[in-house]
Amino acid sequence: MKNKFYLGLATLSLVVFFTACSKLPQTEIDRANQAIDSAKAAGAELYLPAEFANLQDTMKAAMEEIEVQKSKFIKNFGTSKELLAEVTLYASEVTMQTEEKKVALKTEIQTTLNEVKILLEENKKLITEAPKGKEGTSALVAMKNEINALESNVNEINASPDQDNYLTILNKVKMIKEQAAAINTELKDIIAKYQSNVRGRKS
Amino acid sequence: MKRNIKIRLAITLTLTVIAFCILFILNRDLPPTSEIKEARKALSDARMCSAERYASKLYYLAENTYDSSMLYWNIENKRFWLSRDYDKVRELAADAKNLAIKSKEHAQENTVFVEQILGQELHSLQTRIGNFQSYFDRLPLSEKSVENNQMGLLMLKEAEIAFSKSDFLLANSKLKSAQKNITISYSDAEKIIANYFTNYPDWERSVRKTIEGSEKEKACCIVVDKFSRECLVYHSGILKERFDIELGKNWIGDKNHQGDKSTPEGYYYVENKFDEGQTRYYKALLLNYPNESDKKRFKKNQKKGIVPSGTGIGSLIEIHGHGGKGADWTDGCIALRDSDMKILFPICPRGTPVTIVGSVKPLHELIH
Q1: What pLDDT was estimated at residue B85?
Q2: Contact A57/B326, CB-based, under 8 Å?
Q3: DSSP one-letter code for B279
Q4: Distance from CA of B147 to the nearest CA of A (A)
Q5: Which DSSP symbol is given to B82?
Q6: Is the ipTM reported for this complex over the cut 0.90?
Q7: Whole-model pTM above 0.80?
Q8: Are B150 and A186 an interchain contact pair (Cβ–Cβ within 8 Å)?
């Protein structure tokens, strides 16, 4: 009787020993997946593509480690849990960085848009100051059209700022600024030339 | 007896542990860990080369194959450990790896190809703009054409930026929009120019006749090339000076009536000269516009109803100073820089022939 007890105890010990670390870290997997989904929803794929790819790679590595352990007779998900925790933490960092990048892009877009608006306003004012009548009106029509085209682009962006991704919008705004600045220089040149001619006439 | 049992138990336990250890060691290398890792590494490398974009079919096939291998691994792991077979997993992992490597190679090839093609297309559009935009800017065009042109130029800049950042797909889509807008606006302009240049044979004859006259008379003559914005001064049939000019906004075509902001075309001569203080425009050479041919044409146009009622033929067409504004701003006069006017004024006496033409060169020599 006593022998049977010892044998049972020994078997139980072995079973406990072999199954002690074998529980699949499902909670950690779900948490990591959720964190990755949040990063994706924030736009990490678009705004931080390298970081997001790295994140996906780390998750794949963690899942591989889980399968490695599942393949073993004695399972130990310790490393898998560590990897999953790493993924979760990294995913939250990527989400945060994505949000920060979006805010930075939005700010840059807004700042550039403000600069563009100032330039366009200045251009409109310069057009009124530019040589009028015979000397001015006809020459400035093309520039006015150009300014109008740029302004309609700015209005389009203002009307639906989240329609496109912020990187595309920023590029567009930068282009508009460049063109508005070119018109500004051109107008200032025309006015300067005209004024120097007027001064020449007076002298 | 008791002792025997204890010994047996100890031996059984020891044998069990040894057996498990042996099985564990045997089992250790069974899962396709390295193959899966290699497939993942190959996928990562492919992604680094933008295979997702430039060899998307192959890349996603590789990724799906990798996912399948993981799925099969998972299925095998659920089976009893002695009956597990990882061959299928290994096979899929190897396929995933090969596909990923192929997608990387294709992406690299495609990137070079797309970069080359896109680079050429960008260059081609830039060249087209470089050759034509200055003419386009001078043409009296509809607001819609100008708007299309502006949009096209804006899109081109976006395409250039995307190209410089190696974002070829975005660059391509922007370039296509730019090409569309530019083509629409330029085709309007090209129609106007092509129509205008049907008069070239007449212009060529007029210019030849004027220069021959200068050679014969050993005198000065002026040829105004409206399209190239140049005032050419000949003496004894030899080109002596070349000045930049500015015209009226509606410079294409002949002058029809007062206030149409057109510069007349045809044979004229310097009727009068106004020095500093006698004109608002530094110095001026007054032309004999309207000449007999202009008057005849005006009457014809009046009959046709082309000329608005109550509008005269116009007058006071001059070659004068205050040019150099970089735009067409006159009411139909020809404006030169004051420094150029200073040179031209003394060498052109009253009676100097002034021939105004659309162009001294044929269209194919101007726009390629």
Answers
A1: 87
A2: no
A3: B
A4: 6
A5: G
A6: no
A7: no
A8: no
DSSP state of B31: S
Question: Which residues of chain B does A197 touch, with a Cβ-Cβ cutoff of 8 Å?
Answer: 322, 324, 338
Average model confidence (pLDDT) for chain A? Answer: 82
Kind plus residue range of the DSSP H or E element containing B272: strand B266-274
Query: How close A110 gets to chain B, by Cα (Å)?
Result: 18
Which carries the bigger pLDDT value, residue A86 or residue A13? A86
Q: Nearest-5° angle of CA A170, CA A172, CA A178?
A: 100
B317: Cβ–Cβ under 8 A, 6 or more apart, which residues? B255, B263, B264, B268, B286, B287, B289, B332, B333, B334
* Separation of CA A170 from chain center: 11
What chain A residue is nearest to B259 in terms of C-alpha separation? A134
CB B207 within 8 A of CB B355: yes
Helix (H) or strand (E) holding B270: strand B266-274
**Contacts of residue B367, Cβ cutoff 8 Å, sequence gap at least 6:** B131, B132, B135, B193
What does the pLDDT read at residue B119?
Answer: 94
Two tokens, residue B26: 């045997």
Look up tokens 């399968």; give the residue. Answer: A67
B48-72 per-position pLDDT tens digit: 998 998 999 999 999 999 999 999 9
Highest mean pLDDT out of A5-14, A46-55, A121-130: A46-55
Q: On the CB side of B340, how many CA atoms lie within 13 Å of its CA?
A: 22
Token reading at B281? 């425009």
3-state secondary structure chain A: CHHHHHHHHHHHHHHHHHHCCCCCCHHHHHHHHHHHHHHHHHCHHHHCHHHHHHHHHHHHHHHHHHHHHHHCCCCCCHHHHHHHHHHHHHHHHHHHHHHHHHHHHHHHHHHHHHHHHHHHHHHHHHHHHCCCHHHHHHHHHHHHHHHHHHHHHHHHHHHCCCCCCHHHHHHHHHHHHHHHHHHHHHHHHHHHHHHHHHHHHHC
Closest-CA distance of chain A to residue B273, Å: 18
What is the rounded CA–CA span in Å between residue B129 and residue B186? 9
pLDDT value of residue B24:
64
3-state SS of B237-255 is: CEEEEEEECECECCCCCCC
Closest CA relative to residue A11, chosen from B160, B332, B262, B17: B17
Burial class, A180, CB count within 10 angstroms (exposed 0-12 / middle 13-18 / buried 19+): buried
- Residue B69 has φ and ψ, to the nearest 5°, of -65, -40
| Res. A192 pLDDT band, cuts 50 70 90 | confident
Strand order in the sheet with B220-225: B238-244, B230-235, B220-225, B353-357, B266-274, B284-287, B318-320, B334-335
- Structural tokens at position A48: 């931080």
Between the CA atoms of A133, A139, A145 and A146, what dihedral angle is there, to the nearest 10 degrees? Answer: -140
Judge contact between B253 and B193, C-beta under 8 A.
Answer: no
Residue B83 to residue B39: CA distance in whole angstroms:
25
Nearest residue in B to A58, CA atom? B40
| Strand ranges for B84-227 from DSSP E | 220-225
Contacts of A57 in chain B (CB under 8 A): 40, 44
Query: Which chain A residues are Cβ-neighbours of B151 within 8 angstroms?
Result: 149
Q: With CA atoms as reference, report the closest residue to B90 among B126, B66, B113.
A: B66
